[in-house]
Amino acid sequence: MTLFDMKGKVAVITGSTRGIGRAIAERMAEHGAKVVISSRKADVCEQVASEINDRFGKGTAVAIAANISSKENLQNLVDESNRAFGKIDVLVCNAASNPYYGPLGGISDDQFRKILDNNIVANNWLISMVVPQMIERKDGSIIIVSSIGGLKGSTILGAYAISKAADMQLARNLACEYGKHNIRVNCIAPGLIKTDFAKALWDNPENLKASTSRSPLQRIGIPDEIAGCAVLMGSKAGDFMTGQTVVIDGGATVS
Length: 255
Description:
It is built from eight helices and seven strands, in the order βαβαβαβαβαβαααβ. The protein is of the alpha/beta class and about 260 residues long. A seven-stranded parallel sheet has the order 3-2-1-4-5-6-7, sandwiched between helices. Strand 1, helix 1 and strand 2 (about 35-40) form a beta-alpha-beta unit. Helix 1 (about 20-30) crosses helix 8 (about 225-235) and helix 4 (about 110-135) packs parallel to helix 5. The radius of gyration is 17 Å and the shape is globular.
């Protein structure tokens, strides 16, 4: 068994039909984990699960659709994951919302609430649903995909940045609450990654050049460059890490 071996582990990853979530699911499957593919659309979940099963073996992945804004959907995700694989060892809270770009003075109440509800409250719901079985087994890893937006101010991503800063504090709080049960809770804070979710930030060549020219690696990241950190956190390699936020941003926050 290597430090990064995930054989025998079951990982539930929200927002895992594309982008960072899919990359995490694929890499965890590659390292031996059983994975639950989840997003809002059942047909897309089924397609991604099928492709993972084709690559890594039948029974590696199952598809369970869920809308993170629905507490009932999230409970069904947990129940069906347990039914499919018998347990949940690793939970990756990756799904998030950002329906608004612009100054906070212009955001509607509904938009603000949606960002906070989906990016913070829903994570706490899902974690609370999964953690009892982890407490019973005295083992578990919870990973929240945050953002470097939570580490600095922004004139166009204010509400999203607030939610991502709150995710970092959620991880710290829960690490303190659940550490005595050998449950680790950590965040990954990606920088600018080439995903559909972040397309508004990189689709314009001038914006992309302005953003990447200020970072040491001088380029945008790709989803697979986030996945390795999730494997670390979900495997034996991360057994003594908890309450931390690992920044993966090409150096953008240090320059």
